[in-house]
Amino acid sequence: MKLDAMYQEIILDHYRNPHHKGLREPFDAESHHINPTCGDEVTLRVLLESAEDGKDALTVADISYDSMGCSISQASASVMTDLLIGKTVDEAMAVLEEFTALMQSKGKGEPDEGVLEDAVAFAGVSKYPARVKCALLAWMAWKDATVKSLATQKEGAV
Amino acid sequence: MKLDAMYQEIILDHYRNPHHKGLREPFDAESHHINPTCGDEVTLRVLLESAEDGKDALTVADISYDSMGCSISQASASVMTDLLIGKTVDEAMAVLEEFTALMQSKGKGEPDEGVLEDAVAFAGVSKYPARVKCALLAWMAWKDATVKSLATQKEGAV
Amino acid sequence: MTARELDVETIRADFPILARTVRDERPLVYLDSGATSQKPRQVLDAEREFYERHNAAVHRGAHQLAEEATDAYEQARATIAAFVGAPADEVVFTKNATEAINLVAYAMSNAATAGEEFARMAVGPGDEVVVTEMEHHANLVPWQELCRRTGATLRWFGVTDEGRLDLSNLDDLVNERTRIVALTHQSNVLGTVNPVRQIAERAHAVGALVLVDGAQSVPHMPVDVTELGVDFLAFSGHKMCGPNGIGVLWGRGELLRAMPPFITGGSMIGTVHMDHSTWADPPQRFEAGVPMAPQAVGLAAACDYLNAIGMDAVAAHEHALVEYALKHVGSLEGVRIVGPTDPEARGGAVSFTVDGIHPHDVGQVLDDRGVAVRVGHHCAWPLHRRYGAVATTRASFYLYNSFADVDALVEGIREAQRFFGVARS
Amino acid sequence: MTARELDVETIRADFPILARTVRDERPLVYLDSGATSQKPRQVLDAEREFYERHNAAVHRGAHQLAEEATDAYEQARATIAAFVGAPADEVVFTKNATEAINLVAYAMSNAATAGEEFARMAVGPGDEVVVTEMEHHANLVPWQELCRRTGATLRWFGVTDEGRLDLSNLDDLVNERTRIVALTHQSNVLGTVNPVRQIAERAHAVGALVLVDGAQSVPHMPVDVTELGVDFLAFSGHKMCGPNGIGVLWGRGELLRAMPPFITGGSMIGTVHMDHSTWADPPQRFEAGVPMAPQAVGLAAACDYLNAIGMDAVAAHEHALVEYALKHVGSLEGVRIVGPTDPEARGGAVSFTVDGIHPHDVGQVLDDRGVAVRVGHHCAWPLHRRYGAVATTRASFYLYNSFADVDALVEGIREAQRFFGVARS
Ligand SMILES: Cc1ncc(COP(=O)(O)O)c(C=O)c1O
Ligand SMILES: Cc1ncc(COP(=O)(O)O)c(C=O)c1O
């Protein structure tokens, strides 16, 4: 049965025990995304911080979220926070890109496990176009919130 | 060839030498009808008169018209005036009904030559739905104008 | 009811797609007819025959093909009109039920600037439009937008916990300010069949119009516009064994004549000058452009197909299926039916939630077993909010479904519970 | 031009209807493609295959059929978009070109009440909308109605005696008050191909939008939206070997995003509450309800079919036919061509009058001989008035027509002249 290919143990684990869930302070920016076909929602906050050395590179200091949705969307949010927290924004954006490409690969992607780590488990989901949106929901919300946060940081910098 | 069945000599004669054509005074009511698919037009006037004996029966004293259109619509107007002028309104309405039925018969009507006279020549036209409107244009205008005239007569009578 | 029992096997043989397999060669169990129905060979043949023998632009030519095409189109109109007990010239073809409803809503806002002749249909500030909380977005959003364009006020009936329309405030909601009441005949989520007549009587008593969304009723039960006692009925071809791309608006002749046009262009005009135009009579007034004649012919073939089986028989068959489904799905532990659990005045849509499993995941397990259902809010988002559900899983039935299909559904739900570890046993 | 010559016999074999006979077993000579084209087997097969294998409601399900249907629909969008050089997400499906044009006109009037976000598209008193005297009613009446709804003013380009657009007052007509210029790419009566780029440049210089009616150009010549330099392009599937019931609006992405919806309902929403809704992004924002997915698939097959032949080759073939027709029809005594007699910048519609014979009667004689033409004002009534003709007879060509078809037309006209006794000899 194909179900196991989609619902890998890793996904079910994150679904049952999501990491970093719950909205936290402090944060720079928040975004709220909805999947209009099923009504699933996520509210997501990001906190960016300048690296210790005071140079330009910003780091993803925290991602917190509240969400309602299916196993795929919940697990994907959880895996994402594990992956992105602690990375620089540039590194995180690169991961987002890699994950997006995997999800749009219609089951034909060859995920880079070095970059995606646990997120490679979602490879099977990419065969189900209707579920790709679920897997991407939190990622899109993160991108959105990060872009907002960067915009604020810039303003602040001026 | 089927053309002859549609364009009977009688029709072509009326088309080339239409009877009662041209707008005349006096008249009780006028109507203007257009065939929206081809732009053909007719302006038609009727004059109704009380019968000599002063009783209720109204007579079609005159029908005059100006028109632009194809052979079928022109011939049909001409034949109609021949048929209806001089009849009582009730008789004329009966002829209209017979003619309408013939035109809607899709080539299967058995026209009553006693009632329709020259108008039986249009039997062939009823096989061509797109031309039925042409054949009926003047008749519909006559009906319209007559109804208007009757309405005015009634008001006058009150 | 003396309805014949349906010979489901024979019927299924008419639907080529039902013979296919999905996901690793599993036979297809199609339980998504509420979204769109499958099409019998007879319908596809009729449409193809039109294209291959009679295709031409209808109402626009004087050659033989144009005559044949026009004839086929108008014959189709007559057949479809008769299917709902209406005269042919009261039936307008649209692209789907959604357009049919929008047509009425736009005619009402257009009436404001369309001249004296159409003033009767106009609405404005102080006027009210009434819908229900169980509407499909297609019968909700167009009315929200009508109100936005005109300044009228939108009001709505609520629903009871049992999934029925709450009519307790009927007389308050439908009052002298009400211009139109728009409601669904049968809910696409709850399955509920609404007491349209009762509401129409109140509406007419206060001078309001009534539009019924028949997208989920006309395909599934005998519907007669006179018996319904309403003013407008909208439905879609694709949900009743007909082609996509065609919908129907039936309207009382007198009202259609009082309505200004919606979409304008060719074939709906009286005369056209550069600076003004006049309109053809209905139904042409509402059918601008080259119409979907092949689809009309296909939909007429669908009506013939359904008539040959008998709409009474179709309704009885679905009633039996839904009764069986309510019993067997409803009795599963952890499963909650959203909608009446009583099969009376209820059609063949069974929506439910499964404790601890998101509908997407339920749907995925079912799909993996070849059982096609719909998951989500089914274009009835406010209704889902009302019942505290983000989404539901919906099985919907049609004449080609069997009791075995329901068994497959029940088995699939159990499997989902096992897979996600929420089953007791 | 290095276009291959078309192998008309091979092409004709793809169109089943062209093999039929009409009126007493006469072979069909179909010269009415301007009204609607015939469909090749490949298109009918593609549509049927969708129904028999993949049919489901697109964008609404998570089961395998729904995935396949959605995929087929979006693939079709990409193919059709590429056919006119557009990105897929800038292509909106409508029921026909008429609806596509109405969509833009209604979005502009809806903008008045649709909130700040869409205010940019709004028009009102003092604003001007510009059309031309050669428009099909589909690209005239919707703009009359937009002006009526909003208080804007309609203005128009005239046409020259030769059948070309009169651009002498371009700078006056298109000015700072102009909000949109809507014009046809190729006239369905005159055949004239308009200098769209030149007009678009002026329009854009004064900040006006440009909508092009491509109903008669996209089927007959290579069209690339970037080269055209316009903002919107509307066309119909049924005139380009595709199914009925589907039309296309291409619009620049930025503009589509700035437009409020037209028809509202399911699948075009962001969120829905009882008292308000928000919208999906384009193209979904403009595709309410279950769409005509099978027709989209059929239209994509039509694009593939035309691409395989090559639109350059199609255009060259029609150019040759029209040149031949202008020469042979135009030289008949008593026949007047309405439209340019010069084949340059001119497509394959040849309209004419015959002295002493009404177009209906000309058409009847032709029909009697199996030659299908259109008679009337061809939904361009003001244009006919301009040329002092109540109606004309129109022959229009497509890739499946041959020189022999033109000969049959010429012979038919002669026969009409003989029959009605207006021939000299
Ligand atoms: C130039 C032109 N524009 C618009 C249309 C309208 O197309 P449709 O009727 O398919 O909407 C037509 C054809 O009828 C046309 O020839
Ligand atoms: C109750 C109801 N109304 C309206 C519609 C809209 O139908 P369509 O999408 O065919 O316009 C649907 C189906 O989607 C429906 O179920």
Automatic annotation (TrEMBL), chains A, B:
GO molecular function, one term: iron ion binding
Any Pfam family: NifU_N
Domain NIF system FeS cluster assembly NifU N-terminal span(s) in chain numbering: 6-134
Taxonomic superkingdom: Bacteria
Gene3D superfamilies per UniProt: 3.90.1010.10
Biological processes, Gene Ontology terms: iron-sulfur cluster assembly
Family classification: Belongs to the NifU family.
PANTHER family reported for this sequence: IRON-SULFUR CLUSTER ASSEMBLY ENZYME NIFU HOMOLOG
Protein name: Nitrogen fixation protein NifU
From TrEMBL, chains C, D:
CDD domains: SufS_like (cd06453)
Protein name per its UniProtKB record: Cysteine desulfurase
BP GO terms, sorted: cysteine metabolic process
Its biological purpose: Catalyzes the removal of elemental sulfur and selenium atoms from L-cysteine, L-cystine, L-selenocysteine, and L-selenocystine to produce L-alanine.
Aminotransferase class V domain ranges (all copies): 29-409
Reactions this protein catalyses: (sulfur carrier)-H + L-cysteine = (sulfur carrier)-SH + L-alanine
NCBIfam families: sufS
